[in-house]
Amino acid sequence: MIYSSPDYKTHHIFSADVCVIGSGAGGAVAAYELAAAGFSVIIVEEGGYYTTRDYDGKPLNNLKTMWRDGGSTVTFGIPPISLPTGKCVGGTTAINSATCFRTPEHIIAQWKNNLHVDMEYDRIVPHFEKVEKMINVTELSWDVLGNCAKIVKRGADALGLHCKPLKHNVRNCKGCGTCQFGCVEGAKQSTEISYIPKALQHDALLLTHCKAEKIVFKGARAVSVECTVIAPHNKRIAHCTVKSKIVISACGTMFTPLLLKNSGIRNTHIGKHLQLHPCSRVVALMDEEVNGWIGVSQGAYIDDFADEGIMLEGIFVHPSILTASLPGIGKSFFELAQQFPNIAAFGVMVHDTTEGFVFSSLHMPLAWYMMNAHDIHTLKNGIAYCAEIFLAAGARKVFTPIVPFSVIESMEKITQLKAATLKRGHIPEVFAFHPLGTCRMAGNSNLGVVNSAGKCYGTENLYIADGSIVPTSLGVNPQLTIMALATKISHYVMEQLTKEGAQ
Ligand SMILES: Cc1cc2nc3c(=O)[nH]c(=O)nc-3n(C[C@H](O)[C@H](O)[C@H](O)COP(=O)(O)OP(=O)(O)OC[C@H]3O[C@@H](n4cnc5c(N)ncnc54)[C@H](O)[C@@H]3O)c2cc1C
Question: Mean pLDDT across the chain, nearest whole number?
Fold first, then answer.
């Protein structure tokens, strides 16, 4: 059953075995696992439920509804980093690029060695397998991946690099390229299409437009979640209380720390250790027609530079957005924009060593993240490699976001770029899509906020199952990691419920 704004009374009281806050990668998985195991589940989700009926293929319309604050969320620091997240049923999975990677084995080993997380790669593999089956992780043909991916492969082949197809969580994807603005084909198996309907089939109750404000405790035991119901246009219209035996916070890396602090939980690691995979993109003007908007927007990747902390991954966003980021003004911009069919683009992602933090102001989470010199250098090198690949693929001109190297037409210029030492302000166009770590998992409360079962230290029944518990950045896209962890955590919750039910 689904509640939307007109369904609420002025003050509604609900109760269930489990209250899951958030319906994104972590929350939807936890809700389904527990509902399928026979427990009563209420999902509290601040955003609305949007489906293919609501998508018209015009990104700007869906930016307003599905992206938090219309996608305008940015970190403080130099450079400021655009950090969008989803606010809708499906959370950020509804607006993501559908790329799927398992957590690298060496990263799990680092968590174990450095933070005493009780986790082995082999033990988490069955959770990956389950998630991959549920969301249909699959490899698409190069034709569906699109011309950008093929051009980058051509350049990579010429340089002896390895450009490989990414895996995606899709079913019958034809490559319409609108992944981040609501998949118009309904092909992307984001959680509002995969896990949430299955949780509802198992009688979960989904409260949309419902924002969790505070978890109420009796001693160390969470007893209820206080929520406000927010109608479209941010008007608060009602209040509701969800009583439950277990609370699972899955509001995401930005919001879970805020909810914990509002609920009186104290731990020095709450909000700290923010890592986010800073990214940028390189655009190329080709002789051939690319028509980059045809094909999945993130098609292929190159991991030859992973040891340097660099992952090159496709990214071609809708023309209405990418055109605006082309360089130049006036006539030169107009001339370039007219050649849009010949534009190709690819992304650069850094496995960051910088740590930032999340703090609250005016009831909103804000992020402070000052990229360190090492990560600036890594991003610069990633941009240089990407530009080199485009030139090797026959690009006429390559445009980078680096101020002194904004147009590159020769390999000599690439050599100069590689040798250059940049300051933070030299790369003004930086994005990040993978915030992680602000309530990290660790073997004890001196090192982190939740234990290896996802339970919040100092509480008896509050679990966290979202990106905030992922202890460090991964070097790969995180949705599968978050979903596999949420699957694992759900089993600990089931054990606790069964044990307490039996008492
Ligand atoms: C444009 C973009 C592209 C991406 N592409 C990829 C990709 O291709 N592959 C990949 O692996 N990752 C990708 N990601 C990242 C990935 O989608 C996220 O890491 C993942 O969805 C995070 O899961 P989560 O459960 O932590 O939070 P979310 O999925 O963000 O879910 C959190 C939910 O909680 C809700 N919420 C927040 N506060 C409250 C509250 N107080 N009360 C009630 N509800 C609340 C939010 O509305 C949201 O629905 C991308 C991200 C973006 C922005």
Answer: 94
Q: How far is CA 205 from CA 11, 15, 31, 192, 341, in A?
A: 17, 10, 10, 14, 46
C-alpha to C-alpha distance for 269 and 274, rounded to whole angstroms? 10
Its pTM stands at 0.97
Please write the tens of the pLDDT for every residue from 382-420: 999 999 999 999 999 999 999 889 999 999 999 999 999
Please tell me what DSSP assigns to residue 441. B
Which pLDDT belongs to residue 93?
A: 97
Residue range 177-224, pLDDT digits in tens: 888 988 888 999 999 999 999 999 999 999 999 999 999 999 999 999
Q: How far is the CA of 78 from the centre of ligand 1 (A)?
A: 24
pLDDT bracket for residue 44 (50, 70, 90): very high
Three-state SS string over 57-107 comes to CCHHHHHHHHEHHHHCCECECCCCEECCCECECCHHHHHCCCECCCCCHHH
The pLDDT of residue 503: 44
Give dist(CA 145, CA 156) in Å, integer: 16
Domains of the chain (ranges plus CATH)? Answer: 2-49+101-134+190-271+438-502 (3.50.50.60), 140-179+277-431 (3.30.560.10)
Question: Ligand 1 pocket: which of 50, 132, 317, 433 to mutate (most atoms <8 Å of CB)?
Answer: 433
pLDDT of residue 363 exceeding 90: no
Phi, psi of 37 (to 5 degrees): -85, 0
Ligand 1 pocket test, candidate residues 92, 206, 236, most atoms within 8 A of CB: 92
Integer Cα distance of 201 and 305 in angstroms: 44
**Is the CB of 257 within 6 Å of ligand 1?**
no
Supply the pLDDT for residue 425.
85
